[in-house]
Structure formats: structure tokens, C-alpha cells
Sequence to fold (190 residues):
Amino acid sequence: MRTNGYGRLQVVAGPMFSGKSEELLRRVRRARLAGLEVVLVNHAWDERYGTGEVSSHTGLSLGSTSATDVPGLLAAVGDRAPDLLAVDEAQFFGPDVVPALEAVLRRGTTVVVAGLSVTFDGRPFEPLPTLMAIAEDVTRLTAVCGVCGADAVFHQRIRAGSGGDPLDGTAAHVGGTETYAARCRRHHEP
Ligand code: ADP
Ligand code: MG
Fold:
């Protein structure tokens, strides 16, 4: 493949429990094995396993920088051009993350972004749809429906959280199997 000096944008998208963090951590580990410089950032709202870590439901985790917003994300990179910038829970950074990541790509850094493609009530969750549209590479993951075992493209709340707008509330999108469950098209109840 010809290169043009810009980084490539890779997106890992799916509902909760689809293995997004697992896949992100796999790519980070491989890049580090190859001796590449990697910056790993998680959103500070993901405090399920304490701050400063990207964790998978399987228990894998790697130390990361926590950022509360897009300027914080850019500060984690600084004015360097690492080989890889890996970002988990990208949906929490909002639409402004798109131009910010484009600026990092222009430096030649490869960017891999993992995040929720849908809200728990089944709506597209920006910025993931936009990032998927402009990415060189998209990995779209599904979970396993907790009712029938079919491919699950959705997740839903099975226990009341702290409420709020499903499109932006933090408490509305952070949780584990006690709060959310993966659901296929047939069994998702928005
Ligand atoms: P994500 O970051 O997409 O929420 P994780 O990488 O944290 O996903 O976790 C994926 C892991 O979650 C799977 O490998 C599996 O062990 C576990 N898991 C628990 N419930 C489910 C489910 N309903 N469907 C698929 N995987 C599940
Ligand atoms: Mg995750």
C-alpha cells in the first residue's frame, strides 16, 4: 500500500459487551511489541475499574491516560506524533473529537478509536457513525444476545441507572452486566 504521510483512522464500533476494549487492547499490545510509541487514552467517565485504565469485561487491562474532554485528549498526545493513538469510549468525547483526531492524523499518527455505535435505546451514537464514515478501516463488532444467543447489535438497560438523556449522560452509559444486557434486533426493547 502506498503511504501519504498521514495516519490511518481505524474504528472499532459496536454495542456494549461486543469486545471493543478487548480489540483495542489487542492492537495496543501488538504495537508495543513492535516497539512503536503508543498513547492510550480513556474517557474519565469510565471509572468502572478505577481511573487510568482501559479494561475489558474479560479482565484484561492496560494503564492509560484519563481525559475529561477533547482538549484533555489532545493534551495527552501533546505536540508529539506517536505512532499510535488509541482511544476508548470515544462516544463520551462528543462531536468535537472528529476534527481533533483529524489533526492528529495529519501528523502521521495512526488513530484507533473504540466506542459505542448505539445508545441503550437503540439510536446511533455520535461521534461513532461519523468516525465510521471517514475511517480507512472499520471493525464492526456484535455481542451475543442475552435472550436467544443471536448476534446483538444493541444493548439495553436492565436496571435503572441515574437517568438522563441517553445521548449524553455518563451514568447512562457506564456499567456492566448488572446494569446492561446485549440484545439482538428481535429482543431489544428500547
Ligand atoms: P466492550 O468494550 O465492547 O464493552 P469488552 O471488550 O469489555 O467489550 O468485553 C467483551 C467480553 O465481554 C467478551 O469477550 C465476553 O467475555 C464478555 N461478555 C459478557 N457478556 C457478553 C455478551 N452478552 N456478549 C458477548 N460478550 C459478552
Ligand atoms: Mg469497553
User: Anything to note?
Assistant: The chain is about 20% helix and 25% strand.
